[in-house]
Design goal:
Order of helices and strands: EHEEEEEHHEHEHEEEHHHHHHHHH
Distance between the termini: 25 Å
Radius of gyration: 21 Å
Strand order of the largest sheet: 5-2-1-6-7-11-10
Helix content: 40-55%
Number of strands: 11
Strand content: 5-15%
CATH superfamily of the largest domain: Class I glutamine amidotransferase (GATase) domain
CATH class of the largest domain: Alpha Beta
Number of domains: 2
Largest sheet: 7 strands, mixed
């Protein structure tokens, strides 16, 4: 994750999804479009009083063109807005582009490139899922920035756009006003990360629960997961990890977790890193920070008590880790969400 300041309590806004020619995309790329529509396009009144306004934007809106077929699977899409409306949105999101735009056989449509630049100048937050990064790169919006895409396409991204610092080892990159994700499921991680930034950890966690997905996978987690990890119940890490989450206030150690998992510390370390892409201590820190965020939003507990309940110890230790990860102090984070709630945004 980026160390740049996030915008806690920003609240929802308009999310404009730039729709390209999806007739050439494989089925798994269409998942990203549906995923964005699911996260940002379905109101969640039980989670927040205001939700996002989703707009599908195409080069020619459907008032002037027939529905667009998707991937040859019998689906079709209606986009009510044109690309020229992207600059009116708070967040602009680009899903995967056709493979020809990845390899360079065909350029990203110049009209879209121009509208992406105009939206960025207008102050929109720019987001790409998977190979949508090629559209942001074509617009020059990734120059001098760190970015990612699906690992199978990052070599092309680096070759075609050398001004971009391409990282093929992460799920997503949050660079403040420009965010990029790896492919398929990593796009959902980034969408939930945006909800977490805008509406807080509690809302993002509850939405993840409805979607039956992990509440928070940090962007720095590896794209590669060892698929040889056994999934049998008696060999699963899930029970010990669930126990750890329920006991974060305790001084947990790798040795203690390994003992509960009935593994050697070395085996537990290797298994957890293969399954999650992070080390046991980093995993624990991520869980503790997520709990601290929820407590800051949902309670008026003193910072010292939140440090104790989340297992981060003293208020000083909580402030150090929280500020490094989130970009603001715990007090400022709570203040932002309190102000947002007072305005009726949650």
């Amino acid at each position: 994750m980026s160390a740049l300041p996030h915008t806690p309590g920003r609240g929802p806004g308009t999310v404009a999804v730039a729709v390209l020619d999806h007739t050439e995309l494989p089925l798994w790329d269409l998942y990203e479009l549906g995923m964005a529509c699911t996260v940002f396009g379905i109101p969640q009144p039980e989670l927040a009083e205001r939700w996002y306004e989703l707009r599908l934007c195409a080069e020619t809106p459907d008032a002037e063109a027939p529905p667009r077929p998707l991937g040859g699977f019998g689906f079709s899409l209606r986009a009510e807005y044109g690309w020229e409306t992207l600059a009116d949105a708070d967040t602009v999101l680009v899903t995967s582009v056709p493979d020809a735009c990845v390899t360079g056989e065909r350029e990203v449509p110049p009209t879209l490139v121009a509208e992406l630049r105009r939206a960025a100048r207008a102050g929109a937050r720019m987001v790409s899922l998977c190979t949508g990064a090629f559209a942001l790169a074509a617009a020059g919006l990734l120059d001098g920035r760190r970015a990612t895409a699906h690992w199978s396409h990052t070599a092309d991204l680096a070759r075609r756009y050398p001004a971009v610092t391409v990282d093929d080892s992460v799920l997503y990159v949050d660079d403040g006003d420009v965010l990029t994700s790896a492919g398929v499921a990593a796009g959902l991680d980034l969408c939930l990360h945006l909800v977490r930034r805008d509406l807080g950890a509690h809302v993002a966690n509850q939405l993840a629960r409805k979607l039956v997905v992990p509440a928070h996978r940090p962007g720095g987690q590896a794209q590669f997961v060892d698929l040889s990890v056994p999934v049998a119940d008696d060999d699963s890490l899930a029970p010990v990890l669930q126990w750890a989450i329920a006991n974060l206030e305790q001084p947990l150690t790798v040795d203690e977790l390994a003992r509960r998992a009935r593994m050697s510390p070395r085996t537990f370390f290797r298994r957890l890193q293969a399954a999650t892409g992070t080390t046991p201590l980093q995993w624990l820190l991520n869980q503790r920070l997520a709990l601290a965020q929820s407590l800051l939003e949902a309670t008026d507990l003193p910072i010292e008590q939140i440090g104790e309940r989340s297992g981060l110890g003293s208020a000083t230790n909580l402030r150090r880790h929280f500020t490094a990860r989130v970009g603001v102090t715990p007090t400022d984070y709570r203040r932002a969400f309190t102000a947002q709630a007072a305005m009726g945004g949650r």
